[in-house]
Amino acid sequence: MAVSFAMGQDSAELEQILRETRTVAVVGASDNPARPSNEVYQYLAKFSHFELYPVNPKISDIDGQPVYPSLADLPIVPDMVDVFRRYDDLPAVLAETLALNPRPKYLWLQQGLRHEEVGAAAQAAGLHVVMDRCLKVDYARLIGR
Fold first, then answer.
1. Model's pTM, two decimal places?
2. DSSP code of 71?
3. According to DSSP H, which parts of 34-115 are helical?
4. What are the chain's domains?
């Protein structure tokens, strides 16, 4: 079930991804309430069924939840890597994702992020890729509230 890179991905495919996902690494999570990554993290922590693992080398916790400096430092391999990073950082995030063993199932690039080369490389490595979509918005629309 490879997801296309189009912005209007099929709702049934997105819903299946969301229902199958149990653990999510939020790369670029922030403790700053003004940042979109914090808003998404807070919503998912409160309303989703996901076990969340925030990743950011510059902070140590978000509301008492430990924040990990890198994907390699996580205590588990997440089902999904949800990315809030700049476009230029995406190849490095993909390399870190692909270094995990076993590999995550899903790479989700948040709204505003599209990187065709990263998407193609992730898909070629067996990951299902979602680009330019907000995990919070899709979760609320398809699963939650």
1. 0.93
2. G
3. 36-47, 90-98
4. 13-143 (3.40.50.720)
